[in-house]
Design a protein that fits this description.
The chain is α/β, with parallel strands linked by helices and 328 residues long. Helix content is 25%, strand content 35%. 33% of the residues are buried. The structure holds S-adenosylmethionine. GO terms for molecular function: tRNA methyltransferase activity.
């Protein structure tokens, strides 16, 4: 039988700290409580030591049946994962280092209230959709995540979302200006436009060809409408088609092109839409900046480098860069 130190709730934090400090807390079991008391499982045979350590407190040593802790620390490996609302998404390659059972136990130990754990098997087709397979829990259609106080609904498996881009959304919104006309050609669920509109009285055109992304941008504008001071218009057309709108020729001050695998194929579209001295934020995959600039220069000599930064790791020695270019 396990023994627990039973103390009034008002003493609990001090008593717990002392038991931990003296190595008397039995960490294999969970601390529990009722309305009046807290029950702290202690190491067997430590009654004398407890008496000395807790001499200033009113307590009882009682038999108890505490719940056992899951022991993720014993696995020696905590995989990388994304917590999206009440869902965890883990990349498939993580299963090379940990069994499915250990993975589930570890994640549940860290996040006991989640509804599902999904394995992301791959990213598919031009919409960059994650192929998700349920590993544990119940199927969840959508989750809501927070980025800098803004809310984003994500339809799992139906839209692209990467929580590691939240800082980038913020960075671009900080450098955007008041009253700018901005176009985000590959908007996903609206991360860049909504961040920008929350900071500036700008006009932003948010476009994405994926019908679920299009609906998500609208949902997310509505979710955040009280926080938005800028205006966002939403379209769902192939980015190439923008060259068919003469009224948009050289209309925009800033253009966001976040389609890293293919963004370079649309250089003529950016040229068409941006005014002279307009800024292009080109997200592109590469090993180093020199190589990228050479690739860009092959498309046109119109672009002058303003700045570049690594945004995300993509593969060993390969990164997603943001290259900021000014149109001559
Ligand atoms: C990398 S994701 C964008 C992520 C988004 N900017 C963010 O910050 O979360 C690329 C997006 O481009 C969209 N897309 C792909 N090809 C397209 C095209 N030809 N025209 C418009 N959108 C396209 C995809 O549906 C996808 O949502």
């Amino acid at each position: 039988m396990i023994k627990c130190v039973k103390v009034y709730r008002r003493y609990a934090s001090n008593v717990l700290a002392l038991l931990k400090k003296h190595g008397l807390l039995n960490r294999e079991y969970k601390v529990s409580h009722d309305k009046e008391y807290v029950y702290m499982p202690v190491i067997q045979g430590s009654d004398d030591e407890i008496r000395v350590v807790l001499r200033d407190f009113e307590y009882e040593l009682v038999d108890c049946l505490p719940e056992k802790r899951r022991k993720h620390r014993d696995y020696g490996y905590i995989p990388s994962y994304d917590l999206l609302g009440d869902v965890v998404v883990v990349r498939e390659n993580v299963l090379e280092n940990i069994s499915r059972e250990q993975l589930v136990n570890t994640i549940l130990d860290l996040h006991p209230n989640i509804k599902a754990i999904y394995i992301k098997e791959k990213t598919i087709d031009e919409f960059r959709l994650p192929k998700l397979k349920l590993l544990w829990g119940v199927e969840v259609g959508s989750v809501v995540v927070k980025e800098y106080g803004l809310l984003f609904k994500i339809m799992l498996g139906k839209v692209y979302y990467n929580k590691r881009l939240s800082e980038e959304h913020r960075r671009i919104s900080i450098i955007s200006g008041e009253n700018e006309k901005i176009i985000d050609l590959f908007s996903g669920i609206g991360g860049f436009p909504i961040h920008i509109a929350s900071m500036h009285k700008a006009f932003i055109l948010a476009n994405d060809l994926n019908p679920y992304a299009f609906v998500s941008i609208i949902d997310n504008i509505l979710l955040n409408k009280k926080k938005l001071i800028g205006n966002i218009a939403v379209t769902r057309i192939d980015a190439r088609e923008f060259t068919n709108f003469p009224s948009l020729k050289e209309y925009f001050d800033r253009l966001i092109a976040n389609l890293p695998h293919k963004s370079i194929e649309y250089m003529y579209v950016y040229d068409y839409l941006l005014r002279k001295n307009g800024i292009l934020h080109l997200y592109i995959i590469g090993k180093n900046l020199e190589d990228l600039l050479e690739r860009i220069s092959k498309y046109s000599d119109k672009w002058v480098l303003e700045k570049a930064a690594k945004v995300l790791d993509y593969a060993p020695y390969t990164y997603i860069y943001r290259v900021d270019l000014i149109k001559r």
